[in-house]
Amino acid sequence: MAVFHSMTSIMFDTLIAVMGLLWFGTGKQPFAAGGAFIKSLLTSRKYLVFFVSMLAILLLNKFELKLEAFFPIHYDLTSALSGWEGSWQGRLQHVVHSDALTLVCAFFYLVMFQAVMVASVGIYTYEKNLKLYYAFCVALLLNYFIALPFFLFVPVDEAWSVSPHIRFLMLDTFPNFESQYRHLSGLDNCFPSLHTSISVTMALLAARSGNKRWATFAGINAGVILFSIFYLGIHWFTDMIAGMCLAAATAAIGLKVGEWANRRQDGLGKDKLKSRDKWIRGNARVKALEER
Questions:
Q1: Residue 136 and residue 121 in contact, taking contact as beta carbons nearer than 8 Å
Q2: For residues 185 and 232, what is the distance between their CA atoms, to the nearest angstrom?
Q3: What is the number of H-type helices and E-type strands within the chain?
Q4: Range of 153's domain?
Q5: Which residue, of 148, 172, 230, 271, is most buried by count of CB atoms within 10 Å of its CB?
Q6: In the chain, how many domains are there?
Q7: Is residue 281 part of a domain?
Q8: Residue 234: CATH number of its domain
Q9: Is the backbone peptide bond immediately before 72 cis, with ω within 30 degrees of 0?
Q10: pTM for the complete prediction?
Q11: How many Cβ atoms sit within 10 Å of the Cβ of residue 54?
């Protein structure tokens, strides 16, 4: 049942998914959103700064496993934080397991998770909803920035690696997961669950976008991913709770910063309009005096 064979195939599927989501979220062909994004990057310094800042933290997270080499940890907090849970994920897998469900969960975990991130930028940019764009950039940056110290100093192993009663179902659809994807996510980087925090953050922000179709889909995406992290045998319940708390905090901060950034932009615009009106009135007076 293997569907994903390499990161290349995942990136290709993600590209197709992004194009479909842009069409779904904007109601227009996806290149319209792409054009709006490029135009904004070239014409707005503030837009560029927020985007580059978000991109920088994503790149930093990519090298998180290399950072761990500079901070060697010789303790394990899995039992302390999640030992009370037992192996309930294994019982869940036994009750609801099917090949189709495994494929759907893996697809949302590997493809839709990142596709919704990219599409969110495109949709908010196309709709000129800069408040949500700024909020999204800040919230995503904070998710990774706050989670990074936990990954470095609070090692919690993935559920399947701890209990023999929990299967790592991801391997059914992506047999090369350990060799192809593992360098992006360490085995002991469970707490908090970034798949939880980021997917819930995107849903919370989408709910404030005024785009009902996008808000509905973002909510469904978050729900499926929350189920998937357990069904695939990856996360603990404590990881999810920590991720949801992180999502609530970063979304709230992101909205505050987004509102400030957007208001500041509007204020500058009003000042320019006032200066222009004053200049027009001044010229009108000069002309009136000359005519006299």
A1: yes
A2: 15
A3: 15, 0
A4: 7-265
A5: 230
A6: 1
A7: no
A8: 1.20.144
A9: no
A10: 0.88
A11: 19
